[in-house]
Specification:
CATH class: Alpha Beta
Strand order of the largest sheet: 3-4-5-2-8
Low-confidence stretches: none
Number of helices: 19
Number of strands: 14
Mean pLDDT: 94
Strand content: 15-25%
Largest sheet: 5 strands, mixed
Helix content: 40-55%
Structural class: alpha+beta
Bound molecules: 2-oxoadipic acid, nickel (II) ion
Length: about 450
């Protein structure tokens, strides 16, 4: 049968259906999406369409979401990677949140997302995916680790039929109508909150180590734990949500508000309400209770920074705002000319000829009117904000035995575990920039 639903349509449909499902499960999410839409309308009117869409078309921004899931084992991570591969989403970046956080957050993560500019423009859906680290002795003693591994080994997050369809969708770059429907139904269902009773004692035991460990290893399924819309003015959104009586975390994470260029990612969040869950008590009886494991988050995105730009950002972001304003490039032009941000370049077609040879450097090309620059949107995450998101949703810091040495994980380990290359985000942006510059560079006379 012909492939009538291509990869990007599967991805867009998956994002839409996940959003509809999450809206019924977490009503505050629907409010957030509505408010984000109103803020975006306001910006489009106030700033004008040209400026408002400097970081992507309003269609893209309106459809844009990221979600987050958490899994327990390399095998489960591989399964998730297969499902995302069917949707044209590849692993990008390695995040070690164990040390980025003072609370016990025993996970390492990557983000699945489209990597080519065309695919990102069609639908940029991404999923931040974290894997538990039971081998890390700082969090799990050998006895608990053994029982945790056994528990995780027993469960099945993704049914074989879903994984088979995902393999086919990846191989054939899409699915026929009927299989697409089946695939999407099974995929969305595997990220729903499960009605399966939660083993009270087991959950509580893990929770004493880390609420994140309990959320992952204390239940028999995974679930989408937030879905984040994108907004063009996150400060305005923050005020509007507070006016609606929704208590946000105390700040917007990431770069400060200022009148210079928007860079990287600014995020803020609120805790979702506790949701009713069934528990299995130690005596085998069932009881009703609740768990508060999900939340709402919103984000604004700006220019991707180069390694040097990122190092400057990391150095300045914790300092006083005055330091930031004094040392961070105040204009896009400076970000580009100093090689601190990533841009795509276009040749200026009707530049008056003055007989001079074009300069080699980007700053000179921009100053001389040879090329124009357009920022490349930051498509990834920030480990400190991610750790902050985990942390702001924990009521208890958990426990960590710092006398033990932690298990080592890195990008290469994760590539091996998934069986797919985990891309370095800087390399992706740099290649896109180099490609455009190569085509925009005027020939020497
Ligand atoms: C993921 C937190 C990371 C973000 O936006 O930084 C994240 C999680 O809570 O599982 O989504
Ligand atoms: Ni998030």
């Amino acid at each position: 049968m012909a492939t009538t639903v291509p990869t990007w349509r599967l991805r867009a449909a998956f994002a839409r259906r996940l959003s509809a499902m999450y809206g019924t499960e977490v009503p505050a999410y629907t409010t957030l999406v509505e408010v984000a839409g109103r803020v975006n309308d306001t910006v489009m009117r106030a700033a004008g369409e040209e400026r408002a869409q400097r970081f992507g078309s309003i269609e893209r921004v309106t459809a844009e979401r990221h979600g987050a899931i958490r899994v327990g084992t390399p095998g489960e991570l591989r399964g998730a990677a297969q499902i995302f591969a069917a949707l044209g989403m590849e692993p990008v970046g390695f995040y070690d949140l164990r040390d980025a956080s003072s609370s016990a957050v025993p996970v390492v993560s990557t983000a699945f997302r489209p990597v080519s500019p065309d695919e990102l423009a069609r639908n940029p859906f991404r999923v931040f995916t974290s894997m538990l680290t039971p081998a890390d002795r700082r969090f799990f003693d050998p006895d608990l680790r053994k029982r945790l591994d056994a528990f995780l080994e027993e469960r099945e997050l993704f049914p074989p039929e879903l994984l088979d369809l995902a393999v086919r969708a990846e191989r054939e770059a899409g699915l026929d109508e009927e299989r697409a429907e089946r695939f999407l139904g099974l995929a969305v269902a595997s990220f729903e909150l499960s009605p399966e009773p939660v083993d009270r004692a087991w959950y509580a035991e893990l929770e004493r180590v880390s609420a994140v460990a309990a959320d992952i290893g204390g239940v028999t399924s995974t679930h989408i734990n937030h879905l984040t819309p994108r907004v063009l003015d996150i400060d305005d959104l923050y005020r509007r949500m507070e006016d609606l009586g929704i208590a946000m975390i105390d700040r917007i994470q990431g770069p400060p508000l200022w009148d210079g260029p928007d860079v990287l990612l600014r995020q803020t969040s609120f805790r979702a309400l506790a949701e009713p869950r069934t528990f299995r008590e130690p005596d085998g009886s069932l009881s009703e209770g609740s768990l508060r494991v999900r939340f709402g988050e919103v984000e604004a995105r700006g220019t991707a920074l180069s390694r040097e730009g990122r190092a400057l950002y990391d150095r300045l972001v914790d300092g006083p705002v005055g330091e930031w304003a004094a040392h961070f490039p105040r204009t896009e032009h400076r970000l580009a000319a100093e090689g601190l941000g990533y841009f795509t370049y276009e040749p200026v077609r009707n530049r008056p000829r003055d007989g001079r040879a074009p300069p080699e450097d980007v700053g000179g090309l921009l100053d001389g009117g040879w090329v124009t620059a357009r920022p490349i949107v930051y498509e990834d995450f920030l480990p400190r904000s991610a750790a902050g998101i985990f942390q702001s949703n924990l009521t208890d810091p958990g426990a960590r035995d710092s006398a033990q040495t932690g298990a080592h994980y890195d990008q290469q380990w994760m590539s091996g575990a998934i069986g797919r290359t985990v891309h370095d985000p800087f390399d992706l942006y740099a290649a896109q920039q180099a490609d455009s510059l190569c085509r925009a560079r005027p020939p020497h006379p």
